[in-house]
Design a protein that fits this description.
Layout: H1 2-6, H2 12-26, H3 36-46, H4 51-62, H5 66-80, H6 92-103, H7 112-131, H8 133-142, H9 150-159, E1 163-165, E2 177-181, E3 184-188, H10 199-211, H11 217-223, H12 228-237, H13 247-260, H14 284-294, E4 330-337, E5 346-349, E6 354-358, E7 369-378, E8 384-393
Amino acid sequence: MARTFVRRYRGEEEVAYLHSALEPILGSTKGVLIFQEQILRVAREIAGLSWEQAGYLRRGMSKMNPEEMARMEAQFIVGCQRQPPEGPGLAPEQARRLWDQVAAFSGYGFNQGHATAYAAVSFSMAYLKARWPAAFFCARLMNWGGFHHPAMYMAEAMRLGISIRPPHVNVSERKFTLTWEGEQAVLWMGLGQVRDLRRRAVRAIVEERGQAPFGSLRDLLRRVPLQRKEVVHLVQCGALDGMGESRAALLAKAEEVERAGSALQMALFGEKALGQPAVEPESLAQRLTWERHLLGYPVSVLEQPLKPVADCLPAHTPLRDLPETGGRAVTVAGVRLPGWTGGEGFHLWDGATWIIVKGMEKLPPSWEPLLLRGRWVSDEWSISWLRVAEMRAV
């Protein structure tokens, strides 16, 4: 901050004096004001405020209290104008600019212990993500994400080549579960995410499959006491995939078992009665409707979110190629991920890359396929986003 601060003023003597005034506080003229403790030293040693007044300033920062900050401004500016040797003798404009530097901290400032703890956690998380991404994302999703919505962590996991699957009675625990298929990491959603599935039912499923995997829907119903709604929801969300020709066929089988009154009661001609017509498989749209209702996510197309509208999409630029467009107007496609960006806009996902989109007053619904036209822009911090001019649902 000292280097930034002194560049705003003219005169070698003034620059040298400000260097000497701020260097003991910052430790070096190349430093920046980072911690509340440094702000307090500026208030005490440059502005001449008492420790009590500096304490008021600290509370104004930490509690984001603009009224208290305004009361301190006049005292701070007057104190900075004290003449040597009692004070630095800053001009009124200089004192006001220094106050502006300090006041910026009122929005979001940390004490050194707080900032150090954040830095340590950030470093640890970055290290774990870089070395063991599958385990990192499994642990993150077991705790329902973090700063971002869980959908963002799923998207980032898929971007790194980790597969996301719906819950399954033969694999999933109550929360997310990590397995490996050769070199492929697979994250299975937890049985606890299935709507209306009781915890006692989840425990019973996990305990029973520890004896032997479930071989069929009838096998599951023989060994685990489940309510009718639980059976339907397990089938519809995909938790019994592989145990029947389709989820629709499994629902028909569940109705057959219910009519029989017991999973131990077999059909007269075995599992498939003679002359019984085949059940038409559910459509992709129906499957996605079930998954969004029961899990909150269209799991079947998480890795290909534009699959349901692939035949309707015009030519468009993949999100991964946006940095190469040179700021030209382009058309892109994707779905909005739920959650907050931390600022303006929303996250757009196309199955391979996610970006931030800004420029729209109203956010579109989550998971709805979108066609957008805009330009790829960057700021002075090399943070980039799509500044969108047009957007419509596909």
